[in-house]
Amino acid sequence: MTAPPPPHPAPAPAGDMTAWHRLHPLSPLIRTGRHLMALGVLVLLLIFANHSGNNDDFISDIVVVGIVLVAGVISWLVTRWQVADGVLRIETGLIRRQSLRFPLSQVQAIDVVQTGLARVFGLAELRLRMAGADSSGGRLACLPLADAERLRTQLLAMGHAAASPVAAGGASAGAAAPSAGGPAGSAGGAAPPAVAAAPPRPERVLFRVQSERLAGAIILSRSGAYAGAVIAVVIVVIALTGRPGVIVPFLVFGFGVVASVWRRFNTEYGTVVAEAPDGLRLRSGLVQTVAETIRPGRVQAVRIVEPLFWRAFGWCRLEVDVAGPRQRRENRSEGQRLRALIPVGSRADAEQMLGELLTTPPRPTHPAPASARVKTPLSYHYLAWAGDDRYVVASRGRICRKTTWVPLEKVQSIRWVQGPWQRRLGLATVRLDVAGRRVTASIQDRSVAEADELLGRLPDLARAARSRGLVS
Question: 103: Cβ–Cβ under 8 A, 6 or more apart, which residues?
């Protein structure tokens, strides 16, 4: 167990990230921003519920608010971080201390997140995404926006150096740590010292979403259809009954549907994907903005999604799966969705992005056997797969067509699956799992002989692909 940090740590030497640093003093306010309205309503209820006007009751209400504020300040005081020996260390907790370690060489991606309240104060949250770890731990909330962006760049550079052969030969991330800056360790949250570095190469923009196309795509999506149906039912009920109060019991359900539509628009608005020296940079958001960097080699799978109504306009969606944890409970809906590099775009946009992510990806050209028509008569023509010594691609779905590419070097397991209908028809499915755990490439409804042959051949191809990746 690590000892609690001193109340006022000494200022860090210039350019030294090995000393302990604090977050911005307004961090407690930003982190509880989503609960501020609920807290305000609670305070108003506590105040106005005292009909007697007793001063003791008013004082007790103030005490409740004071306890909440003091708890936030204590949380800020006992939280500190440092970077040493290629590891980001975060310590927090007063009664139950937590000391977290995040090796920078294992970082999958780093996000810079700004909620609406954080944007008002010019602050941002830094989130580290680690494979197999809890995403709620690798968070620095909050730092000044410029400091957060600079720290993200430095951590990614240090992680790349730690994972590269050059770093293994002696230039370790720990040796590079003193040359990198970060938010200062003073209690006031001053800016970090600057670092002398070569000017970064300019970004190359690969995709920029069109706002009007995004709005139209959401309207034509499943959530948009639900929202439209709810609005139509409300209008019809009010028109038939003439009593708006009838819909009050259903307002909660309607609010949830509309909120899901807004959440998606707010998340994907203004999406820009750019190529940078440290990887792919993804920026998006209307009220809450997110700036994420996906390091080279971290993409586990690529998927193109083509819903039925989108295909009439030639639209599609391109998603990537990055190795990392599932989101915290309050972000479960976001965690179930993949990162959309192209929330909605033309097929040409998707093909261009696919070429940036994968080298000469194959196309699904091997159709399903004729016996699969009995099991899936509607989507039979869209069941196909193909593969080479680097990738496997599989497609399925008629109403919502999905085509998934998986690099063989990223495959974690290969499964042979057969359901009762498939046993009667002599069919089987081969599934390739990756570390992202959100995408599975399913070579669906193949003959048993073909599935057996794939199960015996794909592990060797995956092993050879990983060997080539280690050598390169």
Answer: 86, 87, 162
Q: Are residues 98 and 133 in the same domain?
A: yes
Residue 11 has pLDDT above 60, yes or no: no
Torsion region of 188: left, alpha or beta (phi above 0 gives left; psi -120 to 50 gives alpha): alpha
Q: Which H or E element spans position 377?
A: none
Q: Which neighbouring-strand residues pair with 339?
A: 320
The reported pLDDT for the residue numbered 189 is 44
Average model confidence (pLDDT) across the chain: 79
Tell me what pLDDT residue 38 has.
Answer: 57
Domain boundaries, position 239: 210-268
Residues in the chain: 472
Beta strand 427-434 with 411-417: parallel, antiparallel or unpaired?
antiparallel
pLDDT at 400 over 50: yes
Provide the sign of the torsion angle of the four alpha carbons 127, 130, 131, 133, taken in this order: negative
167 CB neighbour count, 10 Å cutoff: 20
Q: Are 278 and 298 in contact (CB under 8 A)?
A: no
Write out pLDDT tens, residues 165-202: 443 444 333 333 333 333 333 333 444 444 444 455 67
Assign 3-class secondary structure to 30-89.
Answer: HHCHHHHHHHHHHHHHHHHCCCCCCHHHHHHHHHHHHHHHHHHHHHHHCCEEEEECCEEE
Q: How many CB atoms lie within 10 A of CB 281?
A: 18
Q: For residues 142 and 113, state if they share a domain.
A: yes
CA distances from 87 to 102, 177, 179, 322, 429 (A): 5, 9, 15, 21, 42
Alpha carbons 351 and 439: distance in angstroms, whole number: 19
Run of H or E residues at 386:
strand 384-387
Please tell me whether residues 181 and 232 are part of one structural domain.
Answer: no
Peptide bond into 142 cis (omega under 30): yes
Do residues 59 and 158 both lie within one domain? yes
